[in-house]
Amino acid sequence: MTPATRAPRLGWCAVAASASTDRGVVVVPRENGVAMAVDKGAVGPSTLPAVFPAWLDRLQIKYVNPVVKPLAKFIPGTSVITHRGRKSGKVYQTVVTTYRKGDTLAIALGHGKTDWVKNVLAAGEADVQLFRHQLHLVNPRIVPAGSGDTALPPLLRLQNRKVAVLVTDIG
Questions:
Q1: Which is it for the CA torsion 47, 42, 44, 82, positive or negative?
Q2: 34 exposure class (CB count in 10 Å sphere: 0-12, 13-18, 19+)
Q3: DSSP string spanning 3-64?
Q4: What string of DSSP letters covers 141-168?
Q5: What is the residue-level pLDDT of the chain in tens, covering all 171 positions?
Q6: How high is the pLDDT of residue 125?
Q7: Per-residue model confidence (pLDDT) at position 167
Q8: Which positions ≥6 away from 165 have C-beta within 8 Å?
Q9: What is the pTM of this model?
Q10: What SS3 state is found at 115?
């Protein structure tokens, strides 16, 4: 696969266009005429827009997540996703905001393609604690930012204008 060429930064997000469609790379046209390459793990993290700065990621991981994790089953929309590391095999838990519609669970990727997203895509499965229910997630895939997928819940469709969405089936 040829390396992706970078487009100029637009606000907080950078978009990329790929010259190749091998290995499952999908080139999605955007409203502004720039294309975005999306793949289930082969494309680097810079291809997914991140609306939050890196310092906020570190703050959330160190201080916010340890407080929210035990309370997640009581806070509406907040869930804990359990996934296995790609290289270490270690089990990790990450606090996420989930949206359920039928047998589909979606998570907005406001922080871009983080390690937990890469882990879930590589494993092809994860578990999530939604309120007091434990759900097994299969078939993870990324819906690119700006796609306007009508299958997404309405609130998440608004977020999808700026950020990509991880969509999974509940198995």
A1: positive
A2: middle
A3: PPEEPPPBTTB--EE-S--GGG-EEEE-TTS-EEEE-SSSS-GGGS---S-HHHHHHIIIII
A4: EEEPTT---TTS-HHHHHHTTTS-EEEE
A5: 444 433 333 332 333 333 333 333 344 443 444 333 344 443 444 467 788 888 888 888 889 889 999 998 888 889 999 999 999 999 999 999 999 989 999 999 988 888 999 999 999 999 999 888 899 999 999 999 988 888 888 888 998 989 999 999 998
A6: 95
A7: 94
A8: 106, 107, 108, 109, 142, 143, 149, 152, 156, 159
A9: 0.69
A10: helix
Torsion (CA) 15, 18, 21, 25 in degrees, nearest 10 = -30
Task: CATH number for 77-170: choose from 2.30.110.10, 3.30.70.20, 3.40.50.720, 1.10.468.10.
Answer: 2.30.110.10
Show Cβ contacts of residue 98 under 8 Å, excluding neighbours closer than 6 positions: 77, 78, 79, 105, 106, 107, 128, 130
From first CA to last CA, the distance across the chain in angstroms is 33
Enumerate the domain spans of the chain: 77-170
Contact between 101 and 155 (Cβ < 8 Å)? no
Q: Which helix (H) or strand (E) holds 65?
A: helix 65-68
**How far, rounded to the nearest angstrom, does the alpha carbon of residue 86 sit from its chain's CA centroid?**
16
